[in-house]
Design a protein that fits this description.
Blueprint: H1 21-30, H2 33-39, H3 42-59, H4 62-65, E1 70-77, E2 82-89, E3 92-97, E4 106-111, H5 112-119, H6 125-130, E5 134-138, H7 140-145
Parallel strand pairs: 1-4
Antiparallel strand pairs: 1-2, 2-3, 4-5
Length: about 160
Protein backbone atom coordinates (compact mmCIF):
# COMPACT_ATOMS: atom_id res chain seq x y z
CA UNK A 1 0.00 0.00 0.00
CA UNK A 2 1.52 3.39 -0.96
CA UNK A 3 2.32 5.98 1.68
CA UNK A 4 -0.64 8.43 1.76
CA UNK A 5 1.80 11.25 2.53
CA UNK A 6 4.50 10.88 -0.15
CA UNK A 7 7.79 12.51 0.69
CA UNK A 8 7.04 12.57 4.41
CA UNK A 9 9.01 9.46 5.26
CA UNK A 10 6.07 7.41 6.49
CA UNK A 11 4.88 9.89 9.12
CA UNK A 12 1.33 8.71 8.49
CA UNK A 13 2.29 5.33 9.97
CA UNK A 14 3.72 6.75 13.20
CA UNK A 15 2.01 6.24 16.50
CA UNK A 16 2.06 9.86 17.64
CA UNK A 17 1.21 8.83 21.19
CA UNK A 18 4.58 7.05 21.43
CA UNK A 19 6.65 10.01 20.20
CA UNK A 20 8.14 12.21 22.91
CA UNK A 21 7.52 15.96 22.78
CA UNK A 22 11.18 16.51 21.84
CA UNK A 23 10.96 13.96 19.01
CA UNK A 24 7.76 15.61 17.77
CA UNK A 25 9.44 19.03 17.86
CA UNK A 26 12.35 17.68 15.81
CA UNK A 27 9.92 16.18 13.25
CA UNK A 28 8.03 19.47 12.88
CA UNK A 29 11.28 21.42 12.55
CA UNK A 30 12.23 19.34 9.49
CA UNK A 31 8.91 19.90 7.68
CA UNK A 32 8.15 22.69 5.23
CA UNK A 33 4.78 24.42 5.21
CA UNK A 34 3.83 22.37 2.16
CA UNK A 35 4.79 19.12 3.90
CA UNK A 36 2.76 20.08 6.96
CA UNK A 37 -0.23 20.79 4.69
CA UNK A 38 0.17 17.30 3.20
CA UNK A 39 0.46 15.76 6.64
CA UNK A 40 -2.52 17.56 8.12
CA UNK A 41 -5.26 15.93 6.08
CA UNK A 42 -8.03 13.52 6.96
CA UNK A 43 -7.67 10.98 9.73
CA UNK A 44 -3.98 11.75 10.29
CA UNK A 45 -4.80 15.40 11.07
CA UNK A 46 -7.46 14.28 13.54
CA UNK A 47 -4.97 11.94 15.25
CA UNK A 48 -2.22 14.57 15.44
CA UNK A 49 -4.49 17.27 16.87
CA UNK A 50 -6.06 14.89 19.39
CA UNK A 51 -2.61 13.82 20.62
CA UNK A 52 -1.33 17.39 20.88
CA UNK A 53 -4.29 18.52 22.95
CA UNK A 54 -4.11 15.39 25.14
CA UNK A 55 -0.48 16.24 25.85
CA UNK A 56 -1.38 19.76 26.94
CA UNK A 57 -2.88 18.27 30.09
CA UNK A 58 0.33 16.33 30.79
CA UNK A 59 2.64 19.23 29.92
CA UNK A 60 0.75 21.75 32.03
CA UNK A 61 2.80 23.49 34.75
CA UNK A 62 0.40 24.05 37.65
CA UNK A 63 3.07 25.88 39.65
CA UNK A 64 3.18 28.54 36.92
CA UNK A 65 -0.60 28.97 36.81
CA UNK A 66 -1.09 29.94 40.44
CA UNK A 67 -4.72 30.99 40.91
CA UNK A 68 -5.37 31.53 37.19
CA UNK A 69 -8.86 30.65 36.01
CA UNK A 70 -9.32 30.88 32.26
CA UNK A 71 -10.94 29.27 29.26
CA UNK A 72 -8.65 29.33 26.22
CA UNK A 73 -10.26 28.60 22.88
CA UNK A 74 -8.04 27.25 20.09
CA UNK A 75 -9.37 27.62 16.55
CA UNK A 76 -7.16 25.58 14.23
CA UNK A 77 -7.91 26.46 10.63
CA UNK A 78 -7.60 23.67 8.12
CA UNK A 79 -9.82 21.15 6.42
CA UNK A 80 -12.01 21.27 8.40
CA UNK A 81 -11.47 23.99 10.98
CA UNK A 82 -11.53 22.54 14.48
CA UNK A 83 -11.99 24.02 17.92
CA UNK A 84 -10.52 22.81 21.18
CA UNK A 85 -10.88 24.48 24.55
CA UNK A 86 -8.38 24.44 27.37
CA UNK A 87 -9.68 25.25 30.84
CA UNK A 88 -7.22 26.23 33.53
CA UNK A 89 -8.60 26.34 37.06
CA UNK A 90 -7.63 25.25 40.56
CA UNK A 91 -4.11 24.30 39.43
CA UNK A 92 -5.36 21.91 36.76
CA UNK A 93 -5.71 21.91 33.01
CA UNK A 94 -8.52 20.17 31.14
CA UNK A 95 -9.10 19.98 27.41
CA UNK A 96 -12.21 19.34 25.40
CA UNK A 97 -12.85 19.20 21.69
CA UNK A 98 -15.54 21.52 20.37
CA UNK A 99 -16.91 24.95 21.16
CA UNK A 100 -18.76 25.37 24.43
CA UNK A 101 -21.28 28.09 25.22
CA UNK A 102 -18.87 29.58 27.75
CA UNK A 103 -17.12 32.85 26.93
CA UNK A 104 -13.37 32.30 26.49
CA UNK A 105 -10.94 34.64 28.15
CA UNK A 106 -8.77 34.39 25.03
CA UNK A 107 -9.22 32.88 21.57
CA UNK A 108 -6.21 31.87 19.48
CA UNK A 109 -6.80 31.36 15.76
CA UNK A 110 -4.12 29.96 13.47
CA UNK A 111 -3.59 27.56 10.57
CA UNK A 112 -2.29 24.00 10.90
CA UNK A 113 1.37 24.79 10.11
CA UNK A 114 1.58 27.68 12.57
CA UNK A 115 -0.23 25.65 15.24
CA UNK A 116 2.23 22.76 14.92
CA UNK A 117 5.18 25.14 15.00
CA UNK A 118 3.80 26.97 18.04
CA UNK A 119 3.10 23.89 20.16
CA UNK A 120 6.37 22.21 19.19
CA UNK A 121 8.52 25.20 20.13
CA UNK A 122 9.47 25.81 16.50
CA UNK A 123 7.75 29.14 16.12
CA UNK A 124 7.76 32.44 17.94
CA UNK A 125 4.27 33.42 19.12
CA UNK A 126 5.28 37.09 19.02
CA UNK A 127 6.47 36.83 15.40
CA UNK A 128 3.35 34.88 14.45
CA UNK A 129 1.17 37.55 16.06
CA UNK A 130 3.06 40.42 14.43
CA UNK A 131 2.84 38.77 10.98
CA UNK A 132 -0.87 38.00 11.52
CA UNK A 133 -0.34 34.24 11.36
CA UNK A 134 -1.69 34.05 14.90
CA UNK A 135 -4.83 36.01 15.71
CA UNK A 136 -5.64 36.72 19.32
CA UNK A 137 -9.08 37.71 20.54
CA UNK A 138 -9.66 38.74 24.13
CA UNK A 139 -6.99 38.94 26.82
CA UNK A 140 -3.73 39.56 24.96
CA UNK A 141 -1.84 39.60 28.28
CA UNK A 142 -2.99 36.04 29.01
CA UNK A 143 -2.11 34.97 25.47
CA UNK A 144 1.40 36.38 25.84
CA UNK A 145 1.99 34.33 28.99
CA UNK A 146 0.62 30.98 27.81
CA UNK A 147 4.01 29.53 26.92
CA UNK A 148 5.10 29.67 30.57
CA UNK A 149 2.11 27.49 31.53
CA UNK A 150 3.24 24.51 29.47
CA UNK A 151 6.42 22.51 29.14
CA UNK A 152 7.07 23.23 25.46
CA UNK A 153 9.88 21.23 23.85
CA UNK A 154 12.82 22.85 22.14
CA UNK A 155 13.77 21.42 18.76
Amino acid sequence: MPDPTPGLGGLADLDFASITPAEFAALVKKLSGKEIAELMRGDLRTRVLAEIFARMVRQFRPESAGSLRALIRWEVLGDPAVVYETTIADGACTVREGRSDAEPRVTLTLRDAEFLRLVSGNGSPVTMFMTRKLKVGGDIGLASGLTRLFDIPKA
